[in-house]
Design brief:
This protein is an alpha+beta fold. It folds into 2 domains: about 120 residues, 3-layer Sandwich (Rieske Iron-sulfur Protein), CATH 2.102.10; about 270 residues, Alpha-Beta Complex (Naphthalene 1,2-dioxygenase Alpha Subunit, Chain A, domain 1). It is about 20% helix and about 25% strand. Strands 11, 14, 15, 16, 17, 18, 19 and 20 form an 8-stranded antiparallel β-sheet that branches. The model has no long low-confidence stretch (mean pLDDT about 95). Bound molecules: FE2/S2 (inorganic) cluster and fe (ii) ion (FE2). Fe (ii) ion binds next to helix 5 and helix 8. The site of fe (ii) ion has 7 residues, from helix 5 and helix 8.
Length: about 425
Amino acid sequence: MLTAQENDLLTRVEGDAPMGQMMRRYWLPACLIEEIAEPDCDPVRVRLLGEDLVAFRDSDGNPGLMAEQCPHRKASLFYGRNEEGGLRCLYHGWKFGVDGQCLDMASEPQGSGLCAKVRHKAYPVREAGGLLWTYMGPAEFMPEFQRPLFSPRAETSVSIFKIFIHCNWAQGLEGGIDSAHSSSLHSTDMPAARVANAVATGTSWQRPTTDKSPRMEARETDFGFRYAAIRRPIQNAETHDYVRVTSFAAPFHIMIPPNNIYNVYQMSVPSDDEHNIIYICAWSDAGAGVDLEAWRKFTGAQLGIDLDKTYRKLDNISNRYGQDRQAMRLGSFTGIKGFPNQDIAMQEAMGPVADRSHERLGASDLAIVEFRRIMIKAVRAFMEGAPPPGLGVTAADYPAIGSWERIIPKSADWRTFDALAPKAAAG
Ligand code: FES
Ligand SMILES: [Fe+2]
């Protein structure tokens, strides 16, 4: 449990909230590249850390991210015309380049000189791994941009889905680091099977265990923490354990254990105090991975079918997430289709900011406790002038810090395995 003051410290990101100020020291995902795919594309609304922004791509293909409200008299640039090298406000025709510089002022007299003096608020952006990234912190603290951990090379196969969620970022993130829930909430989609490792079939993830109460062990690291969820395997239970190691890197990155085809990576990005944006990537740097449509179909996150054009779910709290009680009687554990839909039903129904002072945590909540402890410690240290954790992590670190899953001898120590070590080496 957390006190109300600790809960605020963890969840609040708007304005001067310390967590939001700390988040500004990292490169943050702003939107998918597919949302601003073409030069002169339609502008896209982006709300990050309580700030309303607009993303677009100019005529030369340069991406931009600027404050949504025009600096003239605050009309929304979301409605603007994206044309001829900039975004033009509809109200009086002021036009801005991707760097925020005003390029034209239709409403002002020729030679007024005002245009050259107006620079709209615009944030630096980078493109990598299928996402547009931005840095919203002070210029003097801007870290060098690194390729994301899930996309070590431009050629890495990365398929991403995105969904807006109506609850704070920590509530969303706690779903991703909660290994125990997968054995109940996702049990229909993650059936037990006599397999050596997790196997993706296209319609389910098979796992070599029936054990619903994992033993949890965590280890704090300089980037966050790693933890092992240790279960009884179906085969060789006397001599072996089935171990799933999940890594958390500050501020909101989760490396979820892979299956036989792809790795899984989650980010729960704070939109504001009561909303977050989840991005879940299926990625592979070795094989073909999974293609985008197959990934979105499997997870129930297809645009136009499961989500509207703004990446909001069509099944949501207003229709009980499409829950089918008859399907539950016939064997579906939840009656809710799709991993994210199941997760989001649990997370949103807690309320936008769950009261964590009244929880009853158990042994299987170890990772939740670690996440809260480490991030509250980090933000308190940040308030005292310490740098945020995890800034130096690069894709080259993945083998040492990333997630993995396999059956290992009981005599082995999960802490000694690397994420990308050959599975055969585990015996
Ligand atoms: S409000 Fe945008 S040009 Fe006037
Ligand atoms: Fe889940």
